[in-house]
Amino acid sequence: APPAGSAPGPARPGTKRLPRAIVVGVKKGGTRAVLEFIRVHPEVRALGTEPHFFDRNYHRGLEWYRSLMPRTLDSQITVEKTPSYFVTKEAPRRIFNMSRDTKLIVVVRNPVTRAISDYTQTLSKKPDIPTFEGLTFRNRSLGLVDTSWNAIRIGMYAVHLESWLQYFPLSQIHFVSGEKLITDPAGEMGKVQDFLGIKRVITDKHFYFNKTKGFPCLKKSESSGLPRCLGKSKGRTHVQIDPEVIEQLRDFYRPYNIKFYETVGQDFRWE
After folding, report:
1. Strand ranges (DSSP E) for the chain?
2. Taking the domains of the chain in order of start, what are their residue ranges?
3. Does the annotation flag 94 for ligand binding?
């Protein structure tokens, strides 16, 4: 309730609703770009921060979750993104219990590049962590990869997808190529708009390529009408990794990638 004596502010139109679509993964795949691009659409309202409801904050309850959401009109879709959901065992069941009709978006990229990007981000915050090679292998000479390290584990997409397919049909999950999001953002976002059942409003005219960052940016953002690029933390120069290590990781991921391609019926060409 407003403090006594204070005049009520103008009522904002719309209602806070539970999301009809969630970007559930993956970390360092391009989820922030998808969220920033889709929220330009007049029929989409997106929560800017990651609520981590279905992994860390589930005990707070659905009403707490709903209270975080932006207000929407009946014609608008509420979207949130928390990339860690994809690798959280309980997330599929919890989202299904909220609504079995929830549409799920998963942004994937080459798991080797993704792991290096993940490590680069961690290194920027904790400069004294072990080397990428040291964390990747349990035994380098035998080529034994340490699948308990999160940066490696996240890229085993086929494994995580199994948990989701126990609750949701493939038709309710849309996979965005993190690579194509850079080379053809309008094409990838066109497919996202089709999946959400909304008109293709976001097209080539919304993007320009930022040579400094090495990825596309919006000509106009949702809020200001000014050009909008992702923050300083996006587009970091990756740590240089021994090519032999990259080759060993490619070999490790290959069977997982092939199984993933077969399951989703889409070849992402990561080989």
Report:
1. 15-16, 21-25, 44-46, 71-72, 77-81, 103-108, 137-139, 144-145, 173-177, 207-210, 215-218
2. 16-262
3. no
CA-to-CA separations, 156 to 103, 137, 187, 257, 260, in angstroms, rounded: 22, 15, 26, 8, 9
Catalytic, 28? Answer: yes
What kind of architecture, by CATH, is found in domain 16-262?
3-Layer(aba) Sandwich (3.40)
Q: What is the reported pLDDT for 11?
A: 62
pTM over 0.85: yes
Tokens linked to 197: 């059942």
Q: Phi and psi of 170, rounded to 5°?
A: -55, -30
- Out of 16, 27, 28, 81, pick the active-site residue: 28
Interval 164-185: pLDDT, tens:
999 999 999 999 999 999 999 9
What value, to the nearest 5°, has the Cα angle with vertex 151 and ends 147 and 152?
35
**Tokens 């915050």, residue?**
125
Using the predicted structure, report yes or no on whether residue 233 has a pLDDT greater than 80.
Answer: no
Residue 39 marked as a ligand binder: no
Residue keyed to tokens 């035994």: 139
Question: Locate tokens 């999946």: which residue?
Answer: 195
232-239: average pLDDT = 70
Of residues 248, 269, 270, the one with CA closest to residue 132:
248
Nearest to 182 by CA among 229, 207, 219, 216: 216
Q: What is the DSSP letter of 161?
A: H
Residue 221 annotated as binding? no
Residue 32: pLDDT over 60: yes
